[in-house]
Amino acid sequence: MKQKIIKTSIQLFDERGFSGTSVQEIVETIGVTKGTFYYYFKSKQELLKLIHLNYIEDLIIQQEKILQDPEKCHKDKLHEIVFMLISNIKTQRPSARIFFREMRHLTEQHVEEIRVKRNIFRENYQTMVEEGVRAGEFSQAARPDIITFGILGITNWSYYWYNPDGNISEQELTKAYTDMIFNGILNVQK
Fold first, then answer.
1. DSSP structure string for 86-117
2. pLDDT tens digits along 98-143
3. pLDDT value at position 142?
4. DSSP string of 12-76?
5. In this structure, are 104 and 125 located in the same domain?
6. For the segment 63-99, what is each residue's pLDDT rounded down to a tens digit?
7. Which of 11, 15, 20, 163 has its Cβ near the most Cβ atoms within 10 Å?
8. How far are the Cα atoms of 17, 53, 102, 110 from residue 96, in angstroms, in the given order?
9. Do the Cβ atoms of 81 and 154 come closer than 8 Å?
10. How many domains is the chain built from?
11. Do 58 and 6 form a contact (C-beta atoms < 8 A)?
12. Domain range holding 89?
C-alpha cells in the first residue's frame, strides 16, 4: 500500500502540484482512508521528502555503477551518464519534475537531507571530469566545476521539454548533448 500511495502521489503532484493536491485527493484516488495514509506517512511533507530521496538515490546508484566500470574511459562514462539521465525521462519524468519543481515545499531540514544527496551526485560527476582532465582525455583548460554545472543544467532541463516518444531518440539527444560538451558549437573549419 505504501508504494501505491507513493505512485499515486507522484502522478497527482506532477499533474496538480504539491500544494494543489490534498491528502484527501490522494486517498480518494486510491480508494482508502486518511488513516491508511497516516499509517505510512506522518504528513504530506514527509511523503514529498521520500519521493525526492527515492529519485536522487536511484540516480546515484545508476551513476556510481557507470563510474565504477574500469573498462570505460572518462569520455564514455560521461556519455553514459548523460544517456542515463535522458533515458530516465521515459520512466522517471514525473518524479524528476517533482524533484526540480516542488523542493520549495520542503522544510529546511528535509531540503538539507536532499541537498546532501544532490551534492553527492554532482561531486561524483565533477570528480569524473577532474579525473578525465588529469588523464589527458579532457582539456587542461576545462573547469570541472563549470563543466559539471553546465552538463547538469542541460540534462536536468530536458525533463521539461523532451518527449521520449517524439521525433528524436534518447541516443540522438545524448549524442547532440555530448557533441556540444566535447566539441562546442564553434565551426573551426576555415
1. HHHHHHHHHHHHHHHHSGGGS-HHHHHHHHHH
2. 988 888 999 999 999 999 999 999 999 999 999 999 999 998 887 8
3. 79
4. HHHHH-STT--HHHHHHHHT--HHHHHHH-S-HHHHHHHHHHHHHHHHHHHHHHHHT-TTS-HHH
5. yes
6. 999 999 999 999 999 999 999 999 998 888 899 889 8
7. 11
8. 13, 11, 10, 17
9. no
10. 2
11. no
12. 43-183
Assigned C-alpha cell, 115: 541537498
CA distance 158 to 89: 8
CA–CA distance, 66 with 77 (Å, rounded to integer): 6
What CATH code is carried by the domain that includes residue 105?
1.10.357.10
Q: How many residues in total does the chain contain?
A: 190
Going by C-alpha positions, the residue among 82, 92, 87 that lies closest to residue 176 is 82
C-alpha cell at 100: 526540480
Q: What is the pLDDT of residue 97?
A: 87
- As a whole number of Å, the CA-based R_g of the chain is 19
Any idea which residue has 552538463 for its cell?
Answer: 151
Which residue is listed with cell 520512466?
Answer: 91
Give percent of the chain above pLDDT 70: 97
Q: Nearest-CA neighbor of 4 among 39, 15, 58?
A: 39
- The alpha carbon of 17 is separated from its chain's Cα centroid by a whole number of angstroms, namely 18
Centre a 10 Å sphere on the Cβ of residue 45 and count the other Cβ atoms it contains. 14
- Vertex 79, ends 169 and 103: CA angle to 5°? 80
